[in-house]
Amino acid sequence: MTPEHDSSRHDRASVADVALSLLDEVGLADLSMRRIAARLDVQPSALYWHFSSKQELLAELSDRITASLRAADGDVLALARRIRDALFTYRDGAELVLSSSALGLGSSHAQSALEDALRRADADDPPDRAVALMHFILGHATLVQQRMHADSYGAASPTAGDDATAGLDRVFDLGIAALAGSARSRSVS
User: Fold this and answer.
1) d(CA 148, CA 156)
2) How many other CB atoms are there within 10 angstroms of residue 32's CB atom?
3) Which of 24, 38, 42, 113 is within CB 3.0–4.6 Å of 71 for a Cys-Cys bond?
4) Ramachandran bin of 122, using left for φ above 0, alpha for ψ from -120 to 50, beta for the remaining angles
5) Whole-angstrom Cα distance, residue 148 to residue 122?
6) How crowded is residue 9: how many other Cβ atoms within 10 Å of its Cβ?
7) Which of 100, 90, 81 is nearest to 177 (CA)?
8) Would you tell me how many other CB atoms lie within 10 Å of the CB of residue 66?
9) pLDDT at position 1, please?
10) CA–CA distance, 87 with 144 (Å, rounded to integer)
11) What domains are there in the chain, each with its CATH number?
């Protein structure tokens, strides 16, 4: 077996582990199959034994980022905060999950958890509200991560010395409350 086709040294999980590690190191824009293969000391074509495309690999990473989310513990706002925090766990995590979601790839752990939480809170139209909440969470988290990156590289415009993300937690909570509607008032004190 040539090194190009030696997929026996790695499995799907180890490829995804390395990809997540590289995501933190280089960010989504520089996460390439070639870079992942180099880290694993295999030819890029060897990765395709485990993932049919880069998008399939990114969907797997998205699933890993959101896999631990369950609605069972906590209300809608607490769950929304946990989803946002999971997205912040990895560099460009929000953008990665947003991209996979936009393409309809991967699981929808977070959205399913939101729908369950909304049902338990007797919210009107849990499926549509869960979609709206997920869109808001992904957009908000992507915005925050981009501001944080810009600030870390000195590219953010300083506003009277304020932190670029100041006040965004309050805005996040307001957005969740507005989209969750009656569910928030019944489940959050």
Assistant:
1) 8
2) 13
3) 113
4) left
5) 36
6) 11
7) 81
8) 26
9) 39
10) 11
11) 1-51 (1.10.10.60), 55-187 (1.10.357)
Instruction: Name the residue type at position 80.
Output: A
Tokens (6 digits) for 118 = 């909304």
To the nearest 10°, report the CA torsion of 170, 166, 83, 149: 160
Full-model pTM: 0.82
Residue 180 neighbours by CB under 8 Å, 6+ apart? 76, 77, 80, 118, 121, 123, 129, 133
From first to last of its 189 residues, the chain has per-residue pLDDT tens of 344 444 457 889 999 999 999 999 999 999 999 999 999 999 999 999 999 999 999 999 999 999 888 756 568 999 999 999 999 999 999 999 999 999 999 888 899 999 999 998 888 899 999 999 999 999 999 999 988 877 777 766 655 455 656 788 899 999 999 999 855 444 444
Provide the CB-side half-sphere exposure for 120 (13 A, CA). 16
Instruction: Give, rounded to a whole angstrom, the gap between the first and last alpha carbons of the chain.
Output: 62
DSSP state of 63: H
Length of the chain: 189
The letter for the amino acid at 110 is A
Residue 148, token pair as written in the block: 């944080």
Q: Where are the alpha helices (DSSP H) in 67-125?
A: 76-88, 93-102, 109-120
